[in-house]
Amino acid sequence: MVITKESLSDIREEYEKAHKKIDEDSKNDPPTEPFRSHYAARDILQNVRRKLKDLLEVLDVGSDAALTVRCILANVLKDIGRISIFTEELSNGELSLKEALELISDDTEKPHAVNAYIEVLNQLGILYCNWGNFEESNRYLDKAKEAYEEGKRRQIEPLTMSDLFGTKDEIEKGKGLQLLERIHTLTLYYLAQVYGYLEDLVKSAHFCHLTLKRQLDYNDYEHVDWALNSATLSQYYFPKDYLSQARHLLAAASYMLDRFEEEVIPKETNPTAKAEKVETHRHRSADIARCWAKYGIHILTASKERLCRDDDDDNERASKPQSTDGLSPVRDIDRFIGLEGLSVYEDQITDEFCLTFEDAKLVMCNGLAWLNKAKEYYTKETEASQYAKIIQDVASLYKQLAFFDDNEDNQCKLYKRCIDQLEELDQTLNATYYQTICREIWYELGLTYSKILDAKLSKLESLASNERPTPHALNKINKLCEKSIGKFQKFLESYKVPLDTLEVPTGIDESELQPILFAFFHIGRLYYKVITPDKRLQLANVKNSFRYYHNFVKHCEQYETVGAQFKAEMGVCKEMNTLLPLKIKKLTDELNE
């Protein structure tokens, strides 16, 4: 028996009705019934499924007609499965998708089945990813990728659902191939996500980049989504010091957002929709500006680390790294084809490490400009936590630049700007609601006050033997010690560490224990740096210094895994734990004389 166009017309009408409910009617579903149209569509598709099964029973199993109906049924089951996943009925979705897979598993190299087969595999990949079974998700997506590659090797001309419903004369040539390419792009996109969950970041970045390139090649993208994905991918590359690749991705993201503003927004005629697009552009422009700033901060941080290494070969330090993880060398970057004028965006900032203050200052100024742009959207009144993160980045720019300035007075000025930013946040944020951010601020303030202290002490040490420090200079040093100690102590108190016993509460995660012990170390050092002629104050300060050093050693020995990370500090503290009791005894004896 053969099937005619007319015999499938009712089924096609119902199928298209179901898709109209998903694609159009669902946009108007009330918040109280968010899946109403999807449920209605699934009911229609279930009815279509029954009709197709009845039709299959009267067809010869090996006939072309049976193949066509099987492939239509597989598509219907795939859509039922996709709706079930969308409505969070994952087990039902799995049953429908596996039924679809079984129907066409022997027909995967035929034009009728290849697109449906790959789409079903994609949906199963999504399903298992939602379940957290990333290995199984990866297995299905790899199968989808292999099926695409085999189809291309065999030069199969795939059919669309519309082609399956029509006659041979009604096949829209090329449409099935376009669909195949679009489906394969989704496979690569899903693989990028799954490899991310599997913590294989090299493969995740590779598939993400492939996805972005294919979307450009086939003109199949949403401007804003594409820009965000490109900017996000840059965050993988620059921490590995692939600066050229990271900059190229950020430039492409900014380019795409500008195209959205110039080409998409003006064409929108609906005032509400236009306002939403303008708001989206403002929001995502701020996000990408923050990504640019992170790139700049990384350049300064990495440049500082490279210059601090014990490596006398300046040329080696200035060179870019080569790949150690299978990626191409940095100089041989994988550029996007078809995006004209990216150099305008790339030329805003270097893709080289900084060697001089002038180099670093340019990077810092660009970073500030981007963060100021981000602050136009993320304000402390509307987005306090995000605003705080931006201010922390501003402070970081000033702090990193200070390293490159050899003049100690200028260093202190830059550290002071860093402090001003963080102190403003400390005064603004409610420590109860923003505890994590406040902890970061207190800790960073403690470190930065300590940095200025070191610069001031260095200046004192450089005085000639016949020069005496001024009372103002000594008072400044003591004030810096006091402020640094105060910030570190606020940090400790936020973890319920009593300042009298310094006992760390049990149950604190090791990642949080590390900065707590660092705070002990810094406070011990700071108390010892206070300068005073009053022997009673000297004694109190030395006792406090000993108390913090002693508790640092005690907790490092108690928590061996964390303590193993403090080998250098342990050496200092153990030495001080030997010397300070002697100094305490000496001061006590002098006071008792």
Explain what this protein looks like in three dimensions.
- It contains 23 helices and no strands.
- Residues 314-331 have low confidence and may be disordered.
- Helix 16 packs antiparallel against helix 17.
- It is 73% helix and 0% strand.
- The chain has 593 residues and is an all-alpha fold.
- Among the domains are: 223-404, no CATH class; 406-494, no CATH class; 497-593.
- The longest helix is centred in the middle third of the chain and has 38 residues, at 271-308.
Task: Please supply descriptive tags for the structure shown above.
mainly alpha, 23 helices, 593 residues, single chain, elongated
Secondary-structure map:
Layout lengths: L4 H19 L12 H22 L6 H23 L3 H15 L9 H17 L3 H20 L7 H5 L9 H23 L3 H17 L5 H15 L5 H22 L6 H38 L5 H5 L23 H5 L10 H21 L6 H21 L3 H21 L6 H27 L9 H24 L15 H20 L5 H24 L1 H4 L3 H26 L1
Helix pairs in contact: 1-2, 2-3, 3-4, 3-5, 4-5, 5-6, 5-8, 6-8, 8-9, 9-10, 10-11, 10-12, 11-12, 12-15, 12-16, 15-16, 16-17, 17-18, 18-19, 19-20, 20-21, 21-23
The tally of strands reads 0
Rg over CA atoms? 32 Å
C-alpha end-to-end distance = 118 Å
- What is the succession of H and E elements? HHHHHHHHHHHHHHHHHHHHHHH
- β-strand percent reads under 5%
Overall body shape: elongated
> What average pLDDT do the residues reach?
92
- Helix count equals 23
Largest sheet: none
Secondary-structure-based class equals: mainly alpha
User: Helicity, in percent?
Assistant: over 70%
Which stretches of 5+ consecutive residues score pLDDT under 50? Answer: 314-331
